């Protein structure tokens, strides 16, 4: 009998891992890490900054943020029930990895194991994700995306002149660039969580694509060595100079467990004239159990500045995880004829809560934006789309098209739409449509009489509902995201 | 006294409450010279009641009890506490209350009032409430509490015609089984206005149409907020709002639909559209949906833009001067909101009013 495809894939992955174990880029460097004591104070901030050998100005920046954060109230306008967060009861630097080490995959929660298998994740990668003892510490994608990627990507990027570093390295190596751009899109005082992030961000990514360069590959955090545990306060800064292009992937379809309950990341994108940035996210943090216990709080500030004429930023997100999601990837369309896009699928099940959407701020002439949002609520979850489209007086001929569709599965969940439209220019054309529906019995009957099970039928219909968004994702991501949607909704029907 | 809301309060982000702040502590003095009410009446048969600076004219003053079930609200609560006069209409089962016009004229300072309606099963009433002023800065604050019994029908027209100051009015309406509530707010003001309505569908088969036309010029700040709560299965609602922003006006509508858990088969539609005529003017729209039941039909559509160029070109190619073509298309644009008014005479009167306003601006 010939080997099945997963078996072949596993064999390939194992071979790649063996090969990698002798390759210097393959390892995550095993630095003896000490960590800051529990709690948040100026000392914590100083400690983080000192650990990272940051220059004085960076420390000042962090401290300023910390002092400001102390004066800010936590926002309460979202349709979310956020339990009180004890900021003193958390680690802010190199929290010890409390992930238990398993002797073999057999010890893994069968539930998670099943999910891995459904996603088609190779055995070796499963070991890395689950923290099995002896599993090679390698950047995840390097395992199955073959050695060539890991070995050649740095060379190739270097040749193209693309800077792709951890933000800590970038602060040391390119202080001028960081000083120029860090906080230029999401200022320190922007909001409570962004301010907290500015004070204590642990690490993150810096990308600069120079003038006229089309980044030769899709960048993903995995490709960066040591990206394994970028931590709860991630900071990402991507700058695309004139005419540059970059596609950036973040996240992963495999369920990610993390002891840090609060995640407050900041992502800043800057697009100069004729530049294009495509930012794709698949978020599948631990959503808590069936009774709503545990789970990650994901409070993210993502914003893009389309500074140059004809620049373009496209956000695509598939959000299936986290107990609470508070996230509004936005575009400030300052350059003439600049374009902002937002494609989103947000799935909530059990007791998950999501309040997510986008802001499109039209400032330049002829700016255009498109918003496609698909919300799916199942179980006892609440899923809100919250969006703002603002047209300034100078945004002559601005255009926006927004479509928000909600799909309800079962009669215990909630779907909410809260769009804000603010227009100060007569020539603007803004269109907004929203619908709410459920999976009709007819649709399901049709799929099932073709031999699909109840759950398969729902997964198929849901995938159709999300098609416009999923097709924006890079190919491999799209396939995994489709499977992920089905898995996220398991147990919600019947 | 309850704290007055500010723009930091989410539901008041587009409201202009400067005059409320200014006049909250200064009640309007009892008036000796009667303001000219004549231009503010709609030319329709029926009973007329006039209030100036919060006092009844030519009739005994009564201050009706507000509905004790009404939810708390900063301005409506203030109206209940500080009301100096009001109107109470109670209709027995099957009674036809005809058409009643109530005109409130603000002078200086603040004036608060209450209207209380109780419609028995199958009762009918058309109520036209108009708010105007005598060219002085002021604050008129009003609340209306209405209970509609099974199969009762209420048509309410709210005319906001202030040239100065602020009018804030809030209606709280509860609908029994198969009750029908039709409201049209027509604001053609250069001052500020806040119009709020909360409708609770408490009986199956209840239907509400909550429509509005906001016409803003000068420094007008007109702000409307609707909340249609579908609390039981098989209820329906429609909302059609048309905004025309000229001058330096700011027009805002925050339209809300809430569908409670188990309120299956709800059918709620919202259509919010705005025309911005000048670069100095602005329009804000927020069509909000909050849905907790799965077998519902809730859709909203929302557009902001200028007049359709193809339509303008077509009319001009037929020999209609640009100016008239614009007026014609704008009139058609606002007409959608009028269509819910069943009474042809009433609809005609309101259509004429909006047409005259538009002809002066476009």
Description:
The complex is a heterodimer of chains A (494) and B (362). Helices cover 29% and strands 28% of the residues of chain A. With 494 residues, chain A is an alpha/beta fold. Chain A is globular. With 362 residues, chain B is α/β, with parallel strands linked by helices. Chain B has one domain. Chain B has helices spanning 18-23, 74-82, 309-317, 322-338, 344-361, and strands spanning 47-52, 55-56, 85-91, 96-106, 109-119, 124-133, 138-148, 153-160, 166-175, 180-189, 192-201, 207-216, 221-230, 236-245, 250-259, 267-276, 282-291, 297-305. In chain B, a hairpin with a 2-residue loop joins strand 1 and strand 2. In chain B, helix 3 (309-317) packs across helix 4 (322-338) and helix 4 runs antiparallel to helix 5. The mean pLDDT of chain B is 93. The interface between A and B is large, with 36 and 36 residues.
Quick one: overall form of chain B?
Answer: globular
Give the strand content of chain B.
Answer: over 45%
Largest interface: A-B, 36 and 36 residues
Query: What value does the average pLDDT of chain A take?
Result: 81
- What string gives the helices and strands of chain B in order? HEEHEEEEEEEEEEEEEEEEHHH
Radius of gyration of chain A: 22 Å
Count of helical segments of chain A? 14
Main sheet: strands, sense, barrel of chain B: 10 strands, mixed
Total DSSP helices of chain B = 5
Number of domain modules of chain B: 1
């Amino acid at each position: 009998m010939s080997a099945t495809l997963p078996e072949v894939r596993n064999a390939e992955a194992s071979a790649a891992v063996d090969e990698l174990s002798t390759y210097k880029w393959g390892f995550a460097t095993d630095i003896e890490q000490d960590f800051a004591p529990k709690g948040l104070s100026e000392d914590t901030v100083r400690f983080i900054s000192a650990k990272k050998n940051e220059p004085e100005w960076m420390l000042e920046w962090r401290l300023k943020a910390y002092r400001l954060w102390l004066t800010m109230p936590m926002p309460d306008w979202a349709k979310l029930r956020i339990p009180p967060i004890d900021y003193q009861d958390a680690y802010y630097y190199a929290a010890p990895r409390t992930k238990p080490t398993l002797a073999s995959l057999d010890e893994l929660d069968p539930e998670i194991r099943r999910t891995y298998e459904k996603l088609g994740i190779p055995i070796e990668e499963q070991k890395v994700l689950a923290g099995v003892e002896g599993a090679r510490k390698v950047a995840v994608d390097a395992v199955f995306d073959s050695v060539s990627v890991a070995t050649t990507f740095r060379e190739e990027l270097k040749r193209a002149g693309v800077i792709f570093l951890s933000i800590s390295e970038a602060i040391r190596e390119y202080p001028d660039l960081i000083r120029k751009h860090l906080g230029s899109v999401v200022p320190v005082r922007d909001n409570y969580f962004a301010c907290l992030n500015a004070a204590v961000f642990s690490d993150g990514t810096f990308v600069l694509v120079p003038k006229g360069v089309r980044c030769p590959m899709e960048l993903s955090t995995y490709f960066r060595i040591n990206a394994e545990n970028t931590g709860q306060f991630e900071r990402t800064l991507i700058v695309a100079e004139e005419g540059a292009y970059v596609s950036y992937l973040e996240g992963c379809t495999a369920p990610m467990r993390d002891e840090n309950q609060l995640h407050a990341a900041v992502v800043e994108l800057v697009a100069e004239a004729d530049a294009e940035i495509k930012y794709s996210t698949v978020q599948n943090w631990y959503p808590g159990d069936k009774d709503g216990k545990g789970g990650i709080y994901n409070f993210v500030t993502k914003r893009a500045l389309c500074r140059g004429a004809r620049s373009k930023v496209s956000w695509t997100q598939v959000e299936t995880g986290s107990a609470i999601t508070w996230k509004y990837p936005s575009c400030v369309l300052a350059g003439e004829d600049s374009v902002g896009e937002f494609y989103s699928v947000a799935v909530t099940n059990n007791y998950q809560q999501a309040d997510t959407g986008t802001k499109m701020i039209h400032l330049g002439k002829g700016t255009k934006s498109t918003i496609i949002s698909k919300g799916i609520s199942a179980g006892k979850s609440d899923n809100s789309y919250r969006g703002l489209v603002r047209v300034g007086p100078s945004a002559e001929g601005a255009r926006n098209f927004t479509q928000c569709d909600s799909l309800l599965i079962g009669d215990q969940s909630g779907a909410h739409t809260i769009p804000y439209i603010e227009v100060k220019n007569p020539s603007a054309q803004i269109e907004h449509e929203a619908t709410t529906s459920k999976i009709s019995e007819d649709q399901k009957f049709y799929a099932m009489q073709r031999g699909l099970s109840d759950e398969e039928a729902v997964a198929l219909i849901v995938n159709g509902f999300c098609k416009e968004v999923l097709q924006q994702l890079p190919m491999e991501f799209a396939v995994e995201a489709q499977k992920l949607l089905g898995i996220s909704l398991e147990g919600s029907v019947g | 006294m309850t704290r007055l809301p500010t723009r930091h309060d989410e539901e008041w982000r587009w409201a202009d409450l400067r005059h409320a702040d200014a006049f909250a502590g200064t009640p309007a003095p009892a008036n000796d010279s009667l303001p000219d009410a004549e231009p503010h009446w709609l030319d329709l048969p029926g009973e007329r009641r006039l209030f100036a600076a919060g006092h009844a004219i030519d009739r005994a003053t009564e201050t009706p009890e507000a509905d004790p079930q009404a939810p708390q609200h900063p301005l409506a609560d203030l109206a209940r506490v500080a009301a100096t006069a009001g109107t109470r209409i109670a209709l027995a089962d099957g009674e036809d209350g005809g058409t009643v016009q109530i005109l409130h004229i603000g002078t200086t300072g603040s004036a608060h009032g209450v209207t209380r309606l109780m419609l028995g099963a199958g009762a009918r009433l058309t109520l036209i409430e108009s708010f105007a002023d005598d060219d002085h800065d002021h604050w008129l604050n009003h609340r209306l509490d209405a209970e509609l019994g099974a199969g009762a029908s209420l048509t309410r027209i709210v005319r906001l015609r202030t040239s100065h100051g602020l009018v804030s009015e809030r209606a709280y309406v509860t609908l029994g089984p198969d009750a029908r509530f039709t409201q049209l707010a027509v604001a053609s003001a250069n001052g500020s206005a806040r119009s709020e309505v909360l409708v609770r569908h408490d009986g199956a088969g209840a239907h509400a149409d909550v429509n509005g036309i906001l016409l803003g010029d000068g420094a007008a700040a007109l702000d409307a907020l609707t909340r249609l709560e579908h609390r039981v299965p098989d209820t329906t609602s429609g909302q059609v709002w048309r905004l025309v922003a000229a001058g330096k006006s700011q027009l805002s509508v925050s339209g809300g639909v809430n569908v409670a858990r188990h309120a299956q088969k709800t059918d709620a539609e919202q259509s919010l559209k705005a025309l911005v005529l000048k670069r100095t003017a602005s329009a804000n729209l927020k069509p909000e949906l909050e849905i907790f039941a799965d077998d519902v039909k809730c859709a909203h559509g929302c557009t902001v833009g200028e007049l359709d160029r193809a339509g303008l070109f077509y009319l001009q190619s037929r020999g209609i001067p640009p100016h008239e073509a614009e007026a014609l298309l704008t009139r058609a644009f606002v007409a959608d909101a009028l269509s819910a008014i069943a009474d042809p005479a009433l609809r005609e009167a309101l259509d004429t009013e909006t047409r005259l306003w538009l002809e002066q601006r476009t």
